[in-house]
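Ligand: BJW. Inputs:
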Amino acid sequence: MSAIANIVILTGAGVSAESGLATFRGPDGLWEGHRVEDVCTPEAFARDAGFVHRFYDMRRAALETVAPNAAHEALARLDREWPGELLIVTQNVDDLHERAGASRVLHMHGELRSAWCLDCDARSGWTGPLGDAPECPACGARALRPDIVWFGEIPYQMERIEAALARADLFVSIGTSGAVYPAAGFVRAARAYGAETLELNLEASQGSFAFDETRRGPASVLVPEWVA
Ligand code: BJW
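Predicted complex:
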């Protein structure tokens, strides 16, 4: 990677799969028979906030039981040692990149451990269950929602991501199906800006054809090999 100074890494659920967190579109990518597209929307929350809170309470509880895997650890090592610009743009709402020690991480779809008050707009760190009608620690209103970007909402920090893609010499996509936009479009943007593009994924994804190079296998093997 001698000619490469600036790297953007996009991660998806596949990077956390070997830690024990279910992916969205795999065989166990369902929750009590509901598709993610039916739970992760503002409409679903407006219809039945308790139902959506229970889904995220379960996800938050699962987070307590898992640990970063070799893929998170290799990326954290790269983050610590890479002298150029590097940004890990994760679609994941878990905190496994951070727990592995990475600091240049951007959560474009929000974070499980954060709650957002629709009344006072405050964000609060959240570890336990939110319950059916949680109270905002800042203002007391029962108006908290998970701090998660749902379908139809604009992902966080898009301008910063665009700027990083424009400067990238290398764009690497790891463990994501390429089914959800705008993240699925980053590979084309990076190529248009002149970056080399590499996909590391268990199997062919919807977006594989758009990459210069693709490697197939588990992230816990491919990522340490790539970083080495
Ligand atoms: C392994 C592995 C191992 C397994 N090792 N690999 C029609 C066309 C185009 C777009 C749209 C459309 N209709 C609607 C839209 C827009 C919509 C969209 O894309 N919908 C699609 C379903 C078509 N997008 C949105 O609404 C987004 N907002 C938006 O577009 O706003 C407009 C706008 C944008 C920008 C600027 C201005 C305006 C918001 C999307 C929000 C997504 N939210 C979710 C849920 C919340 C998070 C949560 O609860 O956790 O985010 S959906 C869900 O999918 C989650 C994920 O982050 C996201 C991506 O999933 P991911 O990570 O790719 O997981 P999987 O399961 O799909 O794939 C796992 C992959 O890993 C697989 O490939 C496996 O092979 C692999 N794998 N084990 C390596 N060990």
